[in-house]
Write a structure and sequence with these properties.
This protein has 235 residues and is an all-alpha fold. Helix content is 85%, strand content 0%. The protein is globular.
């Protein structure tokens, strides 16, 4: 096991230069802080009366996102931009609160299962992307964006036709799509660094959005399966 672990670590060392490894440490460090902030947001919604997910918090989420994107990294405003990122993550977690409330009423273990599943999927696809040849998966960008646009179109159509098939297809294709974005965004971060972009705060935002999207899709899928299981038991 020790030899296997040593070989695994050496693979990263040989494939990624020291500056890239340091940049990725910063990216995943910010990502970890964002996860903690999102968890705090969900806790606030579920167990306190300080804030509740509503239209104002949704607008606040988009406002902080725009503030982060529109504030360029000049090397002196990292604390400000990090506060934007953590605020965005906090309100994103707050936005998951109503979904958590519904799931807790059905089966609280679904949240744990979805979190473990999301972590395994995210880590697996991230490692495969980091160990792949440089730029190998960047060609996925066009395909992923095309699929994303198609899904948005079908979502709009389904507002009128209300077909369950469209919804289920959107759910599973969306999960597959976000897994692809984990691979793509990970390699894109490395390419951006090689091109001179060292904005690890903005880079971590992409991965945070991917993680939350996968988590949300798994929550809904597992909840549907649990409801179907309960229905079969009643029948």
């Amino acid at each position: 096991m020790a030899a296997l672990l040593n070989t695994f670590v050496n693979s990263f060392t040989n494939r990624l230069e020291a500056p890239v490894r340091q940049h990725l440490k910063n990216v995943y460090g910010c990502l970890s802080l964002s996860m903690v902030s999102a968890a705090a947001g969900s806790y606030i919604h579920l167990y306190t009366e300080l804030l509740q997910a509503n239209m104002l918090t949704t607008l606040g989420t988009f406002g902080l996102l725009l503030a982060l994107i529109s504030t360029p990294d000049n090397g002196k405003n990292q604390k400000l931009r990090l506060s934007y990122l953590l605020g965005f993550a906090l309100l994103s977690g707050l936005g998951l609160g109503p979904l958590f409330q519904m799931i807790i009423a059905i089966n609280p273990s679904i949240i744990v299962s979805a979190l473990i599943g999301t972590t395994v999927v995210f880590v697996s696809f991230s490692i495969s992307s980091l160990l792949a040849e440089r730029g190998r998966w960047l060609y996925l960008g066009g395909t992923l964006l095309s699929l994303l646009n198609t899904m948005v179109l079908f979502s709009f159509i389904n507002l009128f036709v209300r077909w369950s098939f469209f919804y289920q297809a959107h759910l599973y294709v969306g999960l597959f799509l976000m897994c692809g974005f984990v691979i793509y965004d990970t390699q894109l971060i490395i390419e951006k660094f090689h091109m001179g972009s060292k904005d690890f705060i903005l880079h971590s935002l992409d991965l945070f959005i991917d993680f939350i999207a996968i988590f949300r899709h798994l929550l809904i899928i597992l909840t549907q399966k649990e409801l179907a299981k309960e229905k079969r038991k009643r029948d």
